[in-house]
Amino acid sequence: GRNYFERASAPDVENMEEAKERAKILAEAAALKQLASDYMHPEVGVKTTDPTLFGRNYFNRYSAPETEDERAEILAEAAALKKSAVAYMHPEVGVCSEDATLFGRNYFERASAPDVESMEEAEEKAKILAEAAALKHLARDYMHPEV
To answer: What phi-psi label fits residue 71: left (phi over 0), alpha (psi between -120 and 50 degrees) or beta?
Structure first.
């Protein structure tokens, strides 16, 4: 009889290890696709059906008097995060600022500021100038021996 599983036109059959590895790779690719979609579309909310997320915490409830300060702090942080996210996702919007310190000039590190010499550079410069003065004196004595 004919062997239908080992003929040349039979479809390739992968073993159990290859099937597990293929399933693992496909699961990772699906997870990466989901993460990329979440990253590129932050306007889409987070959807979940995990029942533990809807539980109630009786120890740190919102009606406690000390949480009002925390709530205001959390809302301020959320507003700052939203502002940062909008600035990140829309770089075409310019940066606006009216802080007076942003318009000040640094007179010490500007391009036209004179260079500040280190102590070693100053000593080397003084040594070179002293040698140049001595050479000038020797050249004058050589050119005018009568003086």
So the answer is: alpha
Sign for the pseudo-dihedral over CA of 30, 32, 35, 39: negative
Q: How far is CA 85 from the centre of its chain?
A: 14
| Residues 55-88: tens digit of each pLDDT | 777 666 666 656 567 778 889 999 999 999 988 8
Q: Which amino acid is at 113?
A: A
CA distances from 41 to 30, 31, 46, 117 (A): 16, 15, 11, 54
Query: With a threshold of 0.70, does the pTM exceed it?
Result: no
Please give the Cα distance from 30 to 21 (Å, whole number): 14
Query: Which residue, 72, 77, 53, is CA-closest to 62?
Result: 72
- pLDDT tens track for 88-113: 888 888 877 777 777 777 777 777 77
Instruction: Say how far apart CA 16 and CA 23 lie, in whole Å.
Output: 11
* DSSP type of residue 118: P
